[in-house]
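Journal club side-thread
Mid-discussion, someone asked how the predicted structure for our own chain would compare to the paper's figures. Pasting it here so we can look after the session.
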Amino acid sequence: MRADLRNIGVIAQKEFADYLYSPSFRALLGIFILIIFSMSIVSVESGHEIFKSGFLDVAQAITLFLPVLGFALGFDSVVREKNSKSLNTLLTHPVFRDKIISGKIIGGLGALILVVFISVVSSIGTFLIFTGIEIGLSELNRILIFSFLTFLYLSGFFALSLLISIISKSSESSFISGLVVWINLILIFGAIVTVSSSIITGESIVNLGHNEKALSMSKDFQKLSPASYYAEAVTGVRVSYGSFGISSGKETRGIFDSRVGIGTWFADYWTNLVVLTVIPVMMFILSYIVFLRRDIGGEKG
């Protein structure tokens, strides 16, 4: 048992170090931090207060661009080593496949925690420093819940990229597959939903006087994207680029709405929390199953 845990720990440390020293990952992280820092500055200059008017602008940037980091963490985690035959070499040692995939998941989740920490410091820290807002226990709890929501959201995309890496035959195909998923599921998903709702209902979704069916259908379609569950829990609005921000209709405007207690927020958005938890768990389970059954030695890059 101790040997198994030690093997998992060694693999996890190796994966974590690989992420930290990856130039592409560090470049993406730097670009993302610059984006949310800039958005935070703009929000502060616009007079927005995080615990009153919410976190909509910055949350939109996080919702749209954070998945790229999730995909960057896992897109070649398995396929790179599979094609270089290092997995075959590793499997000649007393290390079983389940320990390998466990170590990769733990190492990736460790990197996610670092990404979330940097993201929270860059976004919320900017608000607090420039506005001089003093925070108490309630505000701190909201920040911690926001961090946990962000971690779950990012974990889902990391888990999906890991699964794609396992089934892909090359790093390039894995990267392209992840990019296609991000573009369609996040970046242009709102536009797809808008057009689809208008076509199906025959109503112009921009005609605010006669588009009840189109807006209702758009709201239902947005539930197909994990971005809607994350954005809604954080801001109270389903944020979709290329579509309309649709209010949840709940009593709270997301986790940073200090008008009501955290208990009320949880009662309104517990289903969002469940969905954001189930997505990475299911993806990791699928990754385990596929990795344990896949013929690594017989595949060629």
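Post-session note: The two ends are 34 Å apart (CA to CA).
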